[in-house]
Amino acid sequence: MKINTAEIVMSAVKPEQYPEGDLPEIAMVGRSNVGKSSAINTLLRRRKLARVSSSPGKTRTINFYLINNAFYLVDLPGYGYAKTSKPERASWGKMIETYLSTRENLQEVVQLVDIRHKPSKDDQLMYNWLKHFGYGSLVLATKLDKITRSQYQKHFKIIRETLEMPPGSRIMPLSSLKKTGIEEAWENMRPLLEKPDPIEVREEENTEET
Ligand code: GTP
Ligand code: MG
Q: Cα(84) to centroid of ligand 1, in Å?
C-alpha cells in the first residue's frame, strides 16, 4: 500500500464532531496498551502521527486519520484499563459504543490483541459484538517481536480458540518495533475499503421490493 498522505483531521468525543462526507473508514479496537496507535503509525509508515505511550489510557478521543484523501483509519481509546476512574471508563465505553453502532462510514473494524496473551473477557465480548453487527472480525496480533518464531503457532491457536474464530478467518501478525507484517495487513485491509456501502445495499434492496 502506497501512503501518499496521512493526516489527522479530527479528535472527536461526540458524533457531531465526526468528519463529514462519505469516505470509508476502518477502525482499530482493542484493550488499552495493546498497540492500536502504534499499529496506525506502523501501517502508515509514520513515526509520530498517532500518539503512543507505555502507560495505558493514552488515546482518549476518537482520532480520524485521513489517508491518501481516500479513506480514514480511526484510532479509538482502549478498553479494559483498570486504573481509569469509573465515570471516565463509562464515558469512554459510551463514546466507543456510539461510534461503532452508529457510524455509517464504518466499513470494517480490526480487533487488536497482544500476541503474548490469551484474549481477555472484554476481548471476547468485543469480538462477539462485532460479529453480531456484521463486521468481519479481522484480528491483528500485535507485539510479534515479543515472542520467538517457534511460539507463533501456539499463540495463534490460543487466540483463535479463545475468540472462537470461524475457520478461514485471518489473524494478521504485526510488529511495530520491527516493522514487520505491514504489507500482509494492508493486503487484508485494502479489499475492505472496496466493499459496497452497507447503507446503499440496504436502500437498493428496498427499492427492488417496492
Ligand atoms: P491506548 O491508547 O492506551 O488504548 O493504547 P494503544 O493500544 O494505542 O497502545 P500504544 O500504541 O500507545 O502502545 C502501548 C505500548 O506498547 C507502547 O509502549 C508501545 O511502544 C508498545 N508497543 C506497541 N506495539 C508494539 C510492538 O509491536 N512491539 C513492541 N515491542 N512494543 C509495542
Ligand atoms: Mg492509543
A: 17
